[in-house]
Queue: 4 jobs
Job 1
Amino acid sequence: MLKVIASILLFSSMASAEFVGFSHGNELSATAISGTVKVICSGFNGSGSAIYTCRDMALNPAAYDHFVGPQDSRTDRVELVATHADGSSRSKTAEYDGYRGKSKEAFNLWISTIFQKPLLEAGTNTIRYRIYSRNIEPMVEGTFVANVKRGAPRQCPTAQYTSSDISDCNSQYSICQRYFDEYNNCQ
């Protein structure tokens, strides 16, 4: 009886480790999006207007995603090291829920700012994962490939916003982010 239970546990843990990668999949598409926004600002601090041409590169299906890996209740941290097509690499770590076999936080796959850099780049990304227990040597490690292909460019319709804050007429970044959010990245 004990052998039967051990066999069931072994096979169920192997079945849960069949897919390793990002929860939305490892085939991604980077698409150039663009559009024009007119902003009219008037309020207690002045008035003005601006016309912005917004451009971005959207990652589908998601710019942030969870890592999915093997289930092992002893594990609590995952490290991902992405080696890009040009040979450069980037690493990121997150807490790991070993019971569910999933990172507790989503990894930044694509967004680049002065405060954060993405894990992936366009092309083939070979991801080496290491799953730890209490920051000791890795309990599980392996690799998977995430491909980022170029998608066809998309254009959002022209939009107009009215604001009671003059600073919106001087803030292209925040207006363009709002615009792309409202138009679901021009889809």
Note: The longest helix spans residues 2-16.
Job 2
Amino acid sequence: MKREPITKKMRFEVFKRDSFTCQYCGRKAPDVSLEIDHIKPVAKGGSSDILNLVTSCKGCNAGKSDRELSDNSVIEKQHKQLSELQERKEQLEMMVEWQKELTKLNDFAIEKLSIFWAELIPPYRLNDNGKRSLEKLLNNYSPEQVMEAMRITVKQYIEFEDDRPTHSSVQNAWEKVGGICEMRKLDAENPVNKELYYIRGILRNRLAYLNEGLAIGLLRKCVRLGAPIEVLKEYALEVKTWAEWHENTEEYIEYLKNQNG
């Protein structure tokens, strides 16, 4: 059988695969000069396919002649390498499928949160630009955080005209969603702020109306002036109306200021 030439690229691939190590004696470059050997000799029908090539030092290759390898360690090594390549291929395929599933999940979240926003401010809904903006928000915040921010912005910034949200206020409210997400994320990392949000949650659940932005601002002022968290919490559990809480909290802040001199 005619010997096929082995290209430089093929030689490099075989050397690289075998870690530049003679597969017969274990010696490595540059301690020895390496050559490419045929596992099944060309004289016996062996090809120059990479699966039939192996790294050999000059001495081992010179002594091999056209005899086939009686030691199957090289064959086993190639089988192992093929198995590893197949495993890497399967893992890559799984990673691609995983990324596809993440994309589907992300698309699902965008669609559901778009519907949630539309239900908050009918008859308005997000256009394509709005959905792209929502996608960016979901890259940085959880769906729960974004939904909570949507709800807060609608309560605080939506204005009505003829029982219908005005276009300008809807646009303004949407532009505030990202800022509220970031503010709440930073606040949640502070244990004191977490307590204040809990107190505001008590007020939200108990009162018919609550200005959430003003409420959290007043609670922060109280804490900065030395008000105990438990006192603020107990009062939130007792107060009956937003007007009462607002007025008494403002007075409490003035009292704390006077106490602090």
Note: The chain has three domains: 8-71, 86-179, 190-261.
Job 3
Amino acid sequence: MEDAQFQYVEGQSRPGFASLLAAYEAESVAAVGTETCVLDVRYGPLERQTFDFFTARQKPRGTLAYFHAGYWQSRDKSTFRFIAPAYTAAGLNVALVNYPLCPTVSLPELIEAVQACIPAIRARAAADQAESLPLVLSGHSAGAHIAAELALSGVEDIAGVVAMSGIFDLAPLLATTLNQKLGLDAASAAACSPLHRVRALAAPALVVVGDEETPAFIAQSRRFHEALNKAGSRSSLLLVPQADHFSLLRRFSSPGSLLFDQVCTLSFKAP
């Protein structure tokens, strides 16, 4: 296997990434204009402890929380608002979550800070409901790691976890430029790796990766999926054909795709 810098950084780049990101950003601006939403709902005192809440277009059957990518050190929820319309049309509330970034905070501090979003999202979803709604945690890349960390931390009454293109064993990142801002050593990388703390989860997990991603990313998803099932969890692995690290979000937000349908199945409240 090629070196970690290629596997986790250069090898994931694609020639069309810039145009794809521009499309995501344009669609995200449009989503704010067409959807019923409240932006920058605060869930803590730190600047980036906020989330956007998009309300289901019909009576909601659940809430999908989404944690964005960016290797814990970049990106913003505003780029990923394009995800919301497909799910609100299907009957789900969508909460797009920001979180403090490294190196302003350490990775353990980031995980501690983001935990406060769960009760805040539940409270916002319950504002117009007589009963609680299922909450599914989803995330992409670093966001998949965050969703997994939250699920393993003991957050109660989670309906499911969707971990897309995640990094669950952080040790390989020590040999990459990503660690300049993460500041991990062997001990802290192990402590922040969900793979090393897998246990039986009450909620089912959907572990997702594109078949055009690097071998290291595919292996990360396979290992996490296998560890979950070995621990007694109910995990499914979805290897999405003709999807890379970035185009995978198109499948995630496209009604009729297998990934979209499986996310909805996890998220819906039984009628």
Note: The chain has one domain: 4-266.
Job 4
Amino acid sequence: MKKYIVIFLFFFLLLNNLFITPSFAQVINLKEGLYKASDLNLPTNKLHTIQNNSPSEYVFFMIFDSNQIAQQLMQLNPQSEKYTLTPLDTGYQMLIVTNGEVTID
């Protein structure tokens, strides 16, 4: 009887793990430049986060809407924590000024 219970539990756990689909956020590493949200394939109207990965460089980050009006301005310290960005819309652009690298996810 114990043998059947162990076999049943083994197959039950095996079947449950077969249907689990891992979902990973799209992580993008960016250097200095001007980027369009549409070129980066970032979903619109979704919250994204930004983080400065550089150990010694500061980052100045700006988001502009389609009318070239600044929507968000940030200065990120070296090795910063993650900060939430305003939801991006079609036509939004991002300006990154740094010698390091930032991560957007």
Note: Residues 25-104 form a domain with the Jelly Rolls fold (CATH 2.60.120).
